[in-house]
Amino acid sequence: MKIIFMGTPETAVPTLKAIVEKGHEVLLVVTQPDKPKGRSSAPMPTPVKEYALSAGLRVTQPEKLKNNEEFMSLLESLEADFLVVVAYGRILSERVLKSPKKAPINVHFSLLPKYRGAAPVNWAIVNGEADTGVTTMLMDVGLDTGDMLMKAVTPIKRKTTEDLLAELAVTGAELLIETIDTFDTITPEKQNDAEHTYAPMIKKEDGLIDWSKSAEEIERMIRGFQPWPVAYSMLDGQMFKLFAADIAENCDKPAGTIFDITKKSFSVACGRDALIVKELQAEGKKRMPAASFLSGFKLEEGKAFG
């Protein structure tokens, strides 16, 4: 098959790689423009661009899509069979979606119609879902509202967003290949809009811990808001980011109170139960295990995060 691929982050790379390794002809890779990164602020290519160039693929990085006649002319002139989209990062017009001869297919990291939107994996973890997964779907001009083609279910367990996305990226690549291989035999299924949920873009303030919540809710925040913005709280004017914690039951101390400081960990009271902090990062310091943190930081029992 002749394919145009649109994607940007690391999670999109396994699907593009699978398409190449399967022997499909990738006519064009569309990805976001290079962005400044690091102290030097030098423009850095997207992960999709890096892989595409290493594989000898043609790459384009339009600054904008709206009213971009040059880009549209290129897209339409290639006469691709499929347009495959994985986390490209921009809304696509009806004209873009109509450019392939067969279909525009999106690989979405949720079990649609649940978690339409920009951050489905984060919110599935934060909201305490038991499972998530991948859905391949026909794209329309709505926000993840197209007819569904295939699904694969993945248990969440105690995974972070980073761990889960890495797993789903591989699953999504496999599912996309299966979707293309069997496309002519698949009966698309309309989404039940009444069952839909929304996964909005993450904001920095989403990571601020409210210690009146239960330890279970906060622990899910810790896993769900990695790698950004990371669950955080303030103590004596400093920001502390939490990366890993266990839950301890039956705590009757005021929410936010620090207690049970050992050489390896410390606990923080929550609205229900408590968190045993295992990994964190103090402001201006590196991320480290609680044991390393406690060996160099004087933490006082009875003080409270807030």
TrEMBL record:
It catalyses: L-methionyl-tRNA(fMet) + (6R)-10-formyltetrahydrofolate = N-formyl-L-methionyl-tRNA(fMet) + (6S)-5,6,7,8-tetrahydrofolate + H(+). Coiled coil: none annotated. InterPro entries: Fmt, Formyl_trans_C, Formyl_transf_N, Formyl_transf_N_sf, Formyl_transferase-like_C_sf, GART_AS, Met-tRNA-FMT_C, Met-tRNA-FMT_N. (6S)-5,6,7,8-tetrahydrofolate binds at residues 110-113. The keyword Cell inner membrane does not apply. Signal peptide: none annotated. CDD domains: FMT_core_Met-tRNA-FMT_N, Met_tRNA_FMT_C. Gene3D superfamilies: 3.40.50.12230. It comes from the Bacteria. The keyword Protein biosynthesis applies. Residues 1-178 form the Formyl transferase N-terminal domain. Residues 202-297 form the Formyl transferase C-terminal domain. Its EC number is 2.1.2.9. GO terms for cellular component: cytosol. One of its GO terms (molecular function) is methionyl-tRNA formyltransferase activity. Belongs to the Fmt family. HAMAP family: Formyl_trans. This is Methionyl-tRNA formyltransferase. The lineage of its organism: Bacteria, Pseudomonadati, Deferribacterota, Deferribacteres, Deferribacterales. The gene is fmt.
